[in-house]
Amino acid sequence: MKKISVRASREYEVLIGSGLTEKAGELVKQVHAPCRTVIVSDSNVAPLWLDKVKVSLEKAGFTCSEYVFPAGEASKNTAELIKMVEFFAESGLTRTDLVVALGGGVTGDMAGFASAIFLRGIEFVQIPTTLLAMTDSSVGGKTAVDLEAGKNLCGAFHQPSLVICDTDTLSTLPAVEFSGGCAEVIKYGVIRDASLFEALEEGLLESDPAEVIARCVGIKRDVVEADEFDKGERQLLNFGHTAGHAIEKQSNFTLSHGQSVAMGMIIASLAVGKKEIAQRIAALEDKMGLPSACPYTAELLLPWCMSDKKKAGGSLTLVVPEKIGCCILKKIPAEEVLSFLERGLSR
User: Fold this and answer.
1) Pair (58, 94) in one structural domain
2) Residues near 223 by Cβ (< 8 Å), separated by ≥ 6?
3) 19 vs 12: CA distance, rounded Å
């Protein structure tokens, strides 16, 4: 088992290895005394893993209730959030109790945000079951739901008490879900670690997924510790995400987050003239089953980009690559965003 410590406003550990869901109860018990617990999961993950986690928690002395919502990004909204919070209240959760998020990024984001606002904040544990959630969304404390105006516009910073990444859960992922997580893995190589990018080109993810997850989490840990509340350096983690979120929204979520970010990374690279970088990223995306060509025009994407949470005043902060392993933040005036997108879409 690999162990990575995160020292943010709350210190916690990220555990990575095989067979950890069966040990979830004892692992959680090490950071939180047995208590009343709500396990939040979605309709895809619950039939596969919820009973195993529940049995483990109950053996360790936790009293468990379950909240299962319809799987998919469409559920990541304020209405579902309020249903979840109401269930916490009906279940009798108090400030000394616990929420366990079991699932992918949508589950972690929603359960984390519900935990942040219920009783002004209770503790929660992340048990991510997707590659995307293990490498990215489960670590760092960003929690949110979507609004009609765009993704993740209603949220809070709320760090988990523990993150348990059981690599066995990746075996139950549909191929499209696994490839979606690969986009976030590629992102880490481009923004911070050229050797990771090269290792991905050589097949490291297939041969040693735990090592790749640990390296991605290590990068995110370093960035979060330096800029927990997303005022500067942490924005580098959004490489490909401004255009990606716009693509995701424009598709009405028929394109996944990972697929959309894959396209967004190409757009950001081409927009600043980094054609060779775009070609290497596209080749790796193709190898991992990800699309690289965006089906939408700049005009269709522009309104969603302008509602991005990284917009401040009359400008938008974008993440662009200088070379593989190094990205920078580039602030551009709102009136130049359309031309940025047009350059990024010209292949």
Assistant:
1) yes
2) 192, 233, 234, 236, 237
3) 20
Q: Looking at the structure, tell me whether residues 147 and 99 fall in a common domain.
A: yes
207 and 147 fall within a common domain: no
Specify the length of the chain in residues: 347
Q: Return d(Cα 305, Cα 187) in angstroms, integer.
A: 19
Taking the CA of residue 311 as centre, how many other CA atoms within 13 Å lie in the half-sphere pointing to its CB?
Answer: 19
Residues 141 and 179 in one domain: no
Instruction: Tell me the residue range of the domain where 271 lies.
Output: 175-345
Parts of the chain with a pLDDT under 70:
309-313
For residue 93, give the DSSP letter: -
Check residue 111 and give its pLDDT.
98
**Category of 162 on φ-ψ map: left (φ > 0), alpha (ψ -120 to 50) or beta:** beta
User: How many angstroms separate the CA atoms of 276 and 260, rounded?
Assistant: 20
pLDDT in tens, 31-68: 999 999 999 999 999 999 999 999 999 999 999 999 99
State the CATH number of the domain containing residue 285. 1.20.1090.10
pLDDT of residue 308: 77
pTM for the whole thing? 0.94
194 and 291 housed in the same domain: yes
CB-CB contact of 37 with 56 (8 Å): no
Q: How far is CA 127 from the centre of its chain?
A: 13
Long-range contacts of 196-200 (CB under 8 A, 24+ apart): 197/280, 197/284, 197/324, 197/325, 200/284
Cα 113 from Cα 268, distance rounded (Å)? 29
Q: Encode pLDDT of 69-82 as tens digits.
A: 999 999 999 999 99
**Residues 166 and 27 both lie in one domain:** yes
Please name which of 298, 295, 316 lies closest in space to residue 307, comparing C-alpha atoms: 316
Task: Please tell me the predicted confidence (pLDDT) of residue 312.
Answer: 64
Cβ pair 258, 180 in contact under 8 A? yes
Instruction: Provide the CATH number for the domain around residue 13.
Output: 3.40.50.1970
Assess whether 148 and 230 both reside in one domain: no
What 3-state class would DSSP assign to 138?
coil
